[in-house]
């Protein structure tokens, strides 16, 4: 069983920054790496991809809408990632979810409970 837990959401003014953290844990992960990513869902909208880090932890990609403002990287070793969000805009307001998968290029299998990010104008 794999558990995914996010932290770091909150309220920030437009132009400000927030850093989200995520850790995947479980007895089967002692010697195993997961690929991890961030998604978000705004009220009345579908969940959308934000950023991903591959299983090696060396390659990342972000959605066009946040490119240049958001960064994903490994935080404290394998199966932990952060999402650094700079120059936040009101349209970034959403519940942010961390997700993990056993390999690159497959569906994300493990999901966190989500953390609220609210950007005021």
Mean pLDDT reading: 96
Largest sheet: 7 strands, mixed
Low-confidence segments, ≥5 residues, pLDDT <50?
none
**Into which percentage range does the β-strand content fall?**
over 45%
Shape: globular
| Helical run tally | 0
Task: State the secondary-structure class.
Answer: mainly beta
Order of helices and strands: EEEEEEEEEEE
* N→C terminal distance: 41 Å
Number of strands: 11
- Round the Cα radius of gyration to an integer and report it: 14 Å
Helix content: under 10%
Account of the protein in words:
The protein is built from no helices and 11 strands. 31% of the residues are buried. The model has no long low-confidence stretch (mean pLDDT 96). The chain has strands at 3-7, 10-13, 18-25, 35-41, 48-53, 60-62, 70-74, 80-85, 94-101, 110-111, 115-120. With 121 residues, it is mostly beta strands. The strands form 2 sheets. Strands 2, 4, 5, 6, 9, 10 and 11 form a 7-stranded mixed sheet that branches. Strands 1-3-8-7 form a 4-stranded antiparallel sheet, with no helix packed on it. The chain is 0% helix and 50% strand. It is globular, with a radius of gyration of 14 Å.
Gist?
This protein has 121 residues and is an all-beta fold. It has no helices and eleven strands.
Write the layout of secondary structure elements.
Elements: E1 3-7, E2 10-13, E3 18-25, E4 35-41, E5 48-53, E6 60-62, E7 70-74, E8 80-85, E9 94-101, E10 110-111, E11 115-120
Parallel strand pairs: 2-11
Antiparallel strand pairs: 1-3, 3-8, 4-5, 4-9, 5-6, 7-8, 9-10, 9-11
């Amino acid at each position: 069983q794999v558990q995914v837990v996010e932290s770091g959401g909150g309220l920030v003014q437009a132009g400000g920054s927030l850093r989200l953290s995520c850790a995947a844990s479980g007895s089967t992960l002692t010697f195993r790496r997961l690929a991890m990513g961030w998604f978000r869902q705004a009220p009345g909208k579908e969940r959308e991809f934000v950023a991903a880090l591959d299983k090696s932890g060396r390659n990342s990609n972000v959605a066009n809408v946040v490119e240049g403002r958001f960064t994903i990287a490994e935080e404290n070793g394998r199966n932990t990632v952060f999402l650094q969000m700079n120059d936040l805009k009101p349209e970034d307001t959403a519940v942010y979810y961390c997700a993990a998968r056993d390999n690159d290029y497959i569906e994300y299998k493990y999901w966190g409970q989500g953390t609220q990010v609210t950007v005021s104008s």
